[in-house]
Write a structure and sequence with these properties.
Elements (H helix, E strand, L loop, with lengths): L9 H14 L4 E7 H9 L2 H4 L4 E8 L1 H4 L2 H12 L3 E5 L13 H6 L3 E4 L3 H10 L4 E6 L6 H14 L4 E5 L4 H11 L6 E4 L1 H7 L6 H6 L2 E4 L4 H17 L4 E3 L11 H10 E8 L3 E10 L8 H5 L14 H5 L23 H4 L4 H7 L5
Parallel strand pairs: 1-2, 1-7, 3-4, 3-5, 5-6, 7-8, 8-9
Antiparallel strand pairs: 10-11
Length: 362
């Protein structure tokens, strides 16, 4: 491990690891919800610091990975619409739908452009007034405020050719769905730091209350993650599940009210399809009727469609925490970063990509 600053202090890391090892007696399965946490855990060798009683598993916290094949198909249909320009973040271009990808659609002549912010899509709309610009709005509560702001800004500028295909997801509802399914034993959840900056810690209160499972909000530095794991182990051993904030320098109980207000002004909760999980009630964000002119689904008529997974892909099982990447028969052979079959190998936050990059066997 390489520690380079106050958040990477090897002495404190070892103290925390020793504390966890001394405290942990019961078999404890923790899920790190966020793909960014998975990458950090593997990059810094955090698993090697934990006792054999503590097992870490990846969750569905990769927005590209959980975008359903049917939603990818809708994005491809948008790209194939006459005079349409689709603006998307880079990872989504290579993610497979039921039979195709945006990358292959672009190779056939569709205008698909990689952007770095929603404001880039607004610029494209201004530069191409004769085209329909469709922003693929993906992400969790972290990116939803910027997508909402882009719609408000498009209205302010009077842009008539700017649309958003909202594929945005909400974190707490899918956590509830995973816990309610009982498919995988979860003794504690490492909650996503960036999402929690927006929503705060209060939305997680149902986790210990309804399911008797503890959770801890964590940042993405090694010591942040170790502190969160330490808290969760202490909760498991004492039998006192609770919501803990191990990221107080960035997260408040009520989150960021300005960001939440933007989301609430432009969006309303809706049912959403998650790859490998299915339709989760109230887990998506739909554009409110008063902003229907900016809703690609309403303007271009893109309904929700069922679609299957690529043959042999087990990304859905990985996203639910019921399978490790190396347990998939395609991992590392038929599915690699150069030739990915599923989104978990495509995305920079994907669990399969993380395991492959850092040589993790399980």
């Amino acid at each position: 491990m390489r520690f380079v600053d106050e958040f990477h202090d090897p002495v404190l890391a070892r103290k925390l690891a020793n504390r966890i090892q001394r405290a942990s007696k019961k078999p404890t399965r923790l899920m790190e919800f966020c793909g960014g946490h998975t990458h950090a855990i593997l990059r810094y060798g955090i698993r090697d610091l934990l006792p054999p009683t503590v097992t870490m598993s990846s969750g569905p916290g990769c927005p590209v990975c959980v975008t359903s094949p049917g939603d990818i198909d809708r994005a491809i249909r948008a790209a194939q619409t006459q005079e349409a320009i689709v603006a998307t973040y880079g990872d989504l271009v290579r993610v497979p739908g039921s039979r195709d990808s945006l990358e292959r659609a672009r190779a056939r002549g569709s205008d698909v452009r990689v952007i770095y912010s929603a404001l880039d899509a607004l610029s494209i709309a201004e530069q191409h007034p004769g085209s329909q610009i469709v922003l693929l709005g993906i992400g969790f509560e972290t990116t939803a405020p910027t997508v909402a702001a882009s719609i408000l800004e498009a209205r302010r500028r009077g842009l008539k050719n700017y649309r958003v295909l909202s594929l945005l997801k909400l974190t707490p509802p899918v956590m509830r769905a995973l816990l309610a399914s009982g498919e995988t034993r979860i003794d504690g959840i490492v909650c996503p730091g960036h999402v929690s900056v927006v929503i705060g810690t209060l939305p997680y209160d149902f986790i210990p209350r309804d399911f008797g499972v503890g959770c801890a909000v964590s940042g993405f530095e090694p010591l942040d993650i170790l502190r969160a794991i330490d808290v969760l182990v202490q909760q498991v051993e004492s039998g006192t599940p609770a919501v803990a904030n191990a990221y107080p320098r960035a997260v408040a109980a009520n989150g960021n009210r300005t960001a939440r207000s933007l989301i609430e002004e432009v969006f309303e909760p809706c049912d959403a399809a998650w790859r490998g999980i299915g339709v989760v009630p109230g887990s998506g964000l739909a554009i409110r009727p008063e902003f229907a002119a900016f809703d690609a689904s309403a303007v271009l008529g893109f309904g929700v469609e069922d679609a299957g997974e690529p043959a042999g892909c087990r990304c859905g099982d990985v996203l639910r925490g019921s399978l490790t990447p190396s347990e998939c028969s395609l991992y590392g052979t038929g599915c690699t970063p150069e030739h990915p079959v599923g989104p978990c190998m495509v995305s920079q936050e994907g669990a399969c990509a993380a395991h492959y990059a850092y040589g993790a066997g399980s």
